[in-house]
Amino acid sequence: MAAYAYTAIDKTGKSKRGTIDAVSPDRAMVALKAEGLTPTEVHEASIFNQEVTIGGKKTSDKDLALFCNQFSSILLAGVPAVEALGMLAEQTENKVFAKAIVETKTNIEKGESLGNAMAMRRDIYPPMLVSMVKAGEASGSLEISLQRMGTQFEKDTQLKNTIKKALTYPIIVVIVMIAVIVLLLVKVIPTFMDIFKDMDVEMPKLTMAVVHISDAFKKYWYIIAGIAVIAMIAWKAWSASMAGKLAIGKFTLWCPLTKNFVVKTGSARLARTLATLSAAGLSIVDSLEIVSKTMSNIIMKMAVTDAKEEVKKGMPLSEPLRRSGVFPAMMIHMTKIGENTGDMEGMLTKMAEYYEEEVELATQQLLSMLEPIITIVMAGCVAVVIGAVFGPMLAMYEGLDSL
User: Fold this and answer.
1) Is residue 49 situated within a structural domain?
2) I want to staple 352 with a disulfide (CB 3.0 to 4.6 A). Which of 33, 245, 272, 300 is the partner?
3) Strand-strand pairing, 38-44 and 15-22
4) What is the rounded CA–CA span in Å between residue 239 and residue 248?
5) DSSP 189-248
6) What is the pLDDT of residue 234?
């Protein structure tokens, strides 16, 4: 699947812009029409035309969890939805989200249902929440649907925090390592070289190599900085493209260092989201469509999309999951048991709880493997610089001994 930027007209005649995930421009247009929008332009998104929010931040899972839990509590207290939204807008700290809630309240007052009003702000309310709200309105159990979504967003927040925990330490260590090396090259090495200048000591090759690098940093730092910025922009553009997503997705599923973590994270998200949607009465096909949009690894996302197409043809879900080769055997077996017993919701919930615990263990394993690797790399870089500094000193002492 790819991201497509679109311009469309909503039911009120207003122009809207945004992005949508789809397998092709035609499928993107079909999805937009299903949401009540009339697309006027659809093309593949890039980092230059993706929607950007200025003056505030979009909704996080934490914001959405709080919104759903509070909304459900207020509705259970007998407060009408319109008044409840007004109360939520006043107490929401996220200004972008608060504005969207006010718009939702206004659209309901104009005669729209809550689900349709939320669908008009798909950049704020995720498709899963909109679908759950519509299902809750249709079944008369809106409060329960919101409670389930509150739990879903809380679990998603925990999952993302776990992922951040796994990434934060290595990133900080790498940044510190780069800062230390730059400091040694720019400050320490030149100071020592000034000391050795007046001494008749032949500089070792390692020392001269480090000196040349130090001189390059001092003289051409702006070029190096520019190259680093261009490299980051190029990486961001490439990683946002379909080719980049596929390459990164395949690598993370192949690399022994990341495979376990990526597979268990994707399995936890798939099981939890499917369980939540199944509990609301959504069909397995609609649920898989929504689940595919929550998968961060493109290979796993494509596997879920393919599974949706196979399920449409009447095949049980466990079979395309098995054929994909990316989901663990336990998930496939448990899904098959759920299909045979007719208790998919229960099995999915158990799988979600199991894999969420496994993600915690996988995070610890990933960190335990990264720590020694980063330490060795950092020690190696510092050792080279130290060797370059002490090399001339040893050469000088050897010269004194020979006198």
Assistant:
1) no
2) 272
3) unpaired
4) 7
5) HHHHHHHHHTS--PPPHHHHHHHHHHHHHHHSHHHHHHHHHHHHHHHHHHHHSHHHHHHH
6) 93
Q: Per-residue confidence at 50, pLDDT binned at 50, 70, 90?
A: very low
Q: Is 270 helix (H, G, I), strand (E, B) or coil?
A: helix
Question: Of 269, 52, 47, 79, nearest to 158 (Cα)?
Answer: 269
Query: DSSP character for 184?
Result: I
Q: What is the pLDDT of residues 148-204, one digit of tens each?
A: 888 888 888 887 787 777 778 778 888 888 888 788 777 777 777 776 666 666 677
pTM of the model: 0.66
91 and 217 in a single domain? The answer is no
Same domain? 288 vs 331: yes
| Residue 52 placed within a domain | no
Residue 184: how many CB atoms within 10 A of its CB? 20
pLDDT recorded at residue 397? 67
Instruction: Provide the pLDDT confidence category of residue 54 given band limits of 50, 70 and 90.
Output: very low
Domain boundary among 83, 118, 148: 148
Residues 366 and 345 in one domain: yes
Tokens of 217: 């940093």
Which of 102, 124, 148 is at the close of a domain?
148
**What residues have CB less than 8 Å from 316, skipping those under 6 apart?**
336, 339
CA gap 309, 265 in Å, rounded: 23
Higher pLDDT, 191 or 329: 329
Residue 379 sits in the same domain as residue 324: yes
Domain range enclosing 370: 149-403
